[in-house]
Design brief:
Blueprint lengths: L1 E2 L9 H10 L5 E4 L10 E14 L5 E13 L9 H10 L1 H4 L6 E7 L1 E13 L2 E7 L25
Parallel strand pairs: 2-7, 4-5
Antiparallel strand pairs: 1-6, 3-4, 5-6, 6-7
Length: about 160
């Protein structure tokens, strides 16, 4: 087993591209947070730059920008994506990624569309294994919006 990036850190565009460049012929396997793999014949249909501008419940304006890999599972069960194929998709996406070293997320249609963090890319048994982690919601204005006093805050949050 060869751990290319540190598995405790989230993958960025540059770290994932480095792994893909070092493993162009290896097939990619994507692993759900529970340890199960997604279908081996998935496609990456988009490499995108996603910018989300929002106001949290405390009134603070915030921005989140990520690189999103959209996947799709078709009927062509013989399809396999390799490190080199995914690297080519990143190369095509360079103009929209704007040279930013964004965190990478993975989007999958599992009855509902889910987005997951890309935690690591590790070489295991002659394949590149991409491990996913869960994304969770959170209150970004906890100092203003503590559940026990939420209804009485001046900001009126929650």
């Amino acid at each position: 087993m060869n751990n290319l990036p540190n598995e405790k850190t989230l993958m960025t565009v540059s770290s994932l591209r480095s792994v893909l460049a070092a493993t162009p012929d290896l097939p990619i396997m994507v692993i759900w947070p529970d340890g199960e793999p997604i279908e081996a014949h998935f496609h990456v249909t988009e490499v995108g730059r996603v910018q989300r501008d929002f106001v949290d419940c405390g009134g603070t304006v915030r921005q989140s920008v990520t690189c999103l890999l959209q996947s799709w599972v078709g009927d062509d069960v013989d399809h396999r994506i390799t490190g080199g194929k995914l690297l080519k998709a990143f190369i095509h996406a360079e103009p929209i990624l704007r040279g930013e070293d964004l965190l990478v997320e993975f989007e999958y249609d599992a009855c509902n569309v889910v987005q997951l963090k890309v935690l690591s890319a590790v070489v295991e048994s002659s394949r590149l294994v991409i491990r996913l982690g869960q994304k969770q919601t959170d209150c970004l204005a906890r100092e203003l919006c503590i559940p026990s006093s939420c209804a009485t805050t001046a900001a009126g949050c929650c």
